[in-house]
Amino acid sequence: QVQLVESGGGSVQPGGSLRLSCAASRAIFRIYAMSWYRQAPGKQRDLVAIITLDGTTTYADSVKGRFTISRDNAKNTLYLQMTNLKPEDTAVYYCRVFPKDYWGQGTQVTVSS
Fold it and tell me: Which residues contact 50 (CB under 8 A, 6 or more apart)?
């Protein structure tokens, strides 16, 4: 059974930082790339970043230079370090086994003054 549990969301002022975590099942984490998506109210779910098994990363243009995706294979945990947050980053953030259809439950990130 695949389990993905996100944590670390919250409310922050513009310019602030947050780190999201996604604890994954060991069996799935060691086989696949992992990714973060986000969905703002009334909008589609968009890809934020991907990290492959060997650590190669890809980012959406909107977060390049501000977000960093990483993975700790010993802890079966995916991270998303978010800095210089903007109001347009407000969304529910989901981790996903890439490219499988396995998703976490989501964690809310709100950026507001």
Answer: 33, 34, 35, 57, 58, 69, 98
Task: Give the whole-angstrom CA distance, residue 34 versus residue 66.
Answer: 19
CB 82 within 8 A of CB 19: yes
Could you give phi then psi for residue 7, rounded to 5 degrees?
-155, 170
Q: What is the chain's Cα-based Rg?
A: 13
pLDDT, one tens digit per residue, over 20-65 is 999 998 888 889 999 999 999 999 999 999 999 999 999 999 999 9
3-state secondary structure of 48: strand
Cβ neighbours, 10 Å, residue 42: 5
